[in-house]
Specification:
79% helix, disordered C terminus, mainly alpha
């Protein structure tokens, strides 16, 4: 091997060794962040790597035993400062109220330290500051608003809202879920304490409403969902108790509960939650979640329903709430059919706002209209919804039409009289009907014909058939009532002394005839909902025959009744059109 070749080989080895040294230096810098003296030729690379790394600090180091004792000692020193303020307050060095306010300021300073520690990525230190603040603040507020009576219930709730809000904001900014739970549960414990010691019901409900709104925002931005369920549930229970108490006997209402304030709080409960859900669905475009639906039921039932209940008890304000409900219903329909459907179609948000509109319209009409006017309003609403649903092929409006006409049937007495015609004792059947019941029965028939018109069999779906099923059932109930009363009146004379055996037979005859007619019509026409009614009618007739006819009938009526029902059981199932819409026939 020549000298030239040896020199080239030695230069290559030296170059390779220098490269390995530089790589080892970079690895050491990345692992330890140390400022070791670089080897020759390494200065530029190591300096560049070290300049891009953050300076090591105790807060960034892993949690260790030394750091635990450091945080424990720091928290003990902070508690020592809090007890010093308490000592000075008890000794009269500073006013008692001033000491309490100074303690709250002390806690807010600790919460500010949560922000600073979180900014340095010191999550352990931030949680330690937050826990120390909670340990000082919540007992201080409970004692100042309770036994020591340094703060009024309203002042205690104000201080609690300040501390809890600051703690939740700090937990939100630094993503400290445990700290958020600490301040939420601590606040709930203080609320329970003040309710027990000072009967601060209204103040506690107001605070829970604010806390409920805050926990909703935490759920939307940080996905911390469970807290809002807890707070909303407690708020609903407390507000329901307040509504029941405020709408009860005036002589038994506690002095700390004012009906007008409870009514205002109930309306605010409705507006806050529905406002948040609407903003979430419309402005942010995030849709409607399960909590939104469940809590909306609570807000409408407890909030708005409670406000209406208190207004009716006190005799004032109910009509204004009714008009507010009607305007809310109009807004709900507009949002559902104009905004939601045009953007995202018929999803959960569409049905959510449409259902809210239905509920508000029902409650508003109950409050504004009375007597027969209420029945006429529901009839007009049902027919209008049926016409619009058929014209624009809106399944939601078809269901709403069925609901409105059912409410009209209940309000007019049609539902009750139809039930009594077949279920009341056969010796005490009531004769006669009134005009609103007949009008509602005809409206149910009109709504059914409007929905059934123009649909071919292959276009049918279960969603289209279900509203027609309920309207047909309402109409048949009214017709059955008229038939039973007419036949009883013609055959047995005028009550009050109808023959129980004959009445039971006539009921069985009407049911059997109805089942056969439904089977024939459904077999001739593309009306599958009528065949669905065949089997409930037959089942009800069988049960009635066993429970009623065998008990009050004689040999002749039982013979005829069994014959009629047996023939119906043979003919109706064979004739009925039993295919489910949307499912092709076999073969």
């Amino acid at each position: 091997m020549t000298d030239l070749t040896r020199e080239a080989l030695l230069q290559a080895i030296e170059s390779l060794q220098a490269t390995v040294n530089r790589l080892e230096s970079r690895v050491r810098v990345l692992e330890t962040g140390s400022d070791r003296v670089p080897l020759p030729g390494q200065a530029d690379a190591s300096t560049l790597v070290a300049s891009r790394l953050p300076d090591p600090s105790p807060e960034r180091a892993g949690f260790s035993g030394a750091k635990f004792w450091y945080l424990a000692g720091r928290s003990v020193l902070v508690l020592a400062g809090a007890f010093l303020l308490r000592f000075m307050s008890d000794a009269g060095t500073i006013p008692a109220l001033g000491g309490a306010l100074a303690g709250l300021g002390y806690c807010l300073a600790l919460i500010w330290m949560v922000h600073r520690a979180g900014g340095r990525n010191d999550a352990i230190g931030a949680v330690a500051h937050g826990l120390t603040a909670a340990v000082i603040a919540f007992p201080l507020i409970a004692e100042s608003g309770g036994p020591r009576a340094l703060l009024s219930p309203l002042g205690a709730m104000g201080g609690l809202a300040l501390v809890t809000g600051a703690g939740l904001v700090a937990a939100w900014r630094r993503r400290l879920r445990f700290l958020a739970w600490t301040f939420t549960l601590g606040a709930l414990v203080v609320v329970a304490t003040l309710i027990k010691s000072k009967e601060a019901y209204l103040e506690s409900a107001s605070f829970l409403l604010l806390l409920g709104a805050g926990t909703c925002l935490l759920a939307y931005s940080r996905h911390w969902h469970l807290k809002r369920w807890v707070v909303a549930g407690l708020l609903n229970v407390l507000l329901l108790w307040l509504v029941v108490t405020a709408s009860g006997d005036p002589g038994r209402i506690p002095a700390t509960i004012h009906p007008f304030r409870v009514q205002t709080l109930a309306v605010c409960h409705l507006l806050v939650y529905l406002g948040i859900f609407t903003w979430r669905a419309l402005i942010q475009g995030r849709g409607v979640r399960v909590f939104d639906v469940v809590q909306s039921v609570g807000a409408v039932t407890v909030g708005f329903g409670g406000a209406v209940r208190i207004a009716q008890t006190n005799g004032q304000g109910a009509e204004a709430l009714g008009w507010f409900a009607l305007l809310s219903a109009l807004a709900g329909y507009a949002v559902a059919f104009i905004f939601i459907r045009s953007r995202r179609g018929r999803g959960r948000g569409f049905f959510y706002f449409a259902s809210l509109a239905l509920v508000f319209l029902a409650i508003g009409s109950l409050t504004v209209a009375h007597g027969s006017w209420l029945v006429w309003c529901w009839v007009l609403l049902g027919l209008a919804a049926a016409v619009l649903g058929a014209a624009f092929r809106r399944v939601t409006l078809r269901f709403h039409a069925a609901v409105y006409l059912f409410l009209a049937a209940v309000g007019s007495g049609l539902a009750g009289s139809s039930f009594a015609a077949f279920m009341s004792p056969p010796d005490s059947i009531r004769m006669g009907t009134d005009l609103p019941s007949v009008v509602v029965m005809l409206a149910a028939l009109a709504g059914y014909l409007i929905m059934a018109r123009g649909h071919r069999e292959q276009d049918l779906s279960i969603a289209l058939v279900i509203p027609r099923f309920f309207l047909a059932a309402m109409f048949l109930g009214g017709v059955g009532q008229l038939l039973v009363m007419g036949m009883v009146g013609l055959s047995a004379g005028t009550p009050p002394d109808p023959d129980p055996a004959l009445t039971a037979l006539l009921r069985t005859a009407v049911l059997a005839l109805t089942a056969v007619l439904l089977a024939v019509v459904s077999g001739r026409l593309a009306l599958p909902e009528l065949s669905w009614l065949v089997y409930p009618v037959l089942l009800f007739a069988c049960v009635k025959l066993v429970l009623e006819d065998l008990r009050v009938g004689n040999a002749l009526t039982l013979c005829v009744g069994f014959a009629l029902l047996g023939a119906a059981l043979i003919l109706a199932p064979r004739t009925a059109r039993s295919r489910i819409p949307g499912v092709p026939p076999s073969g």
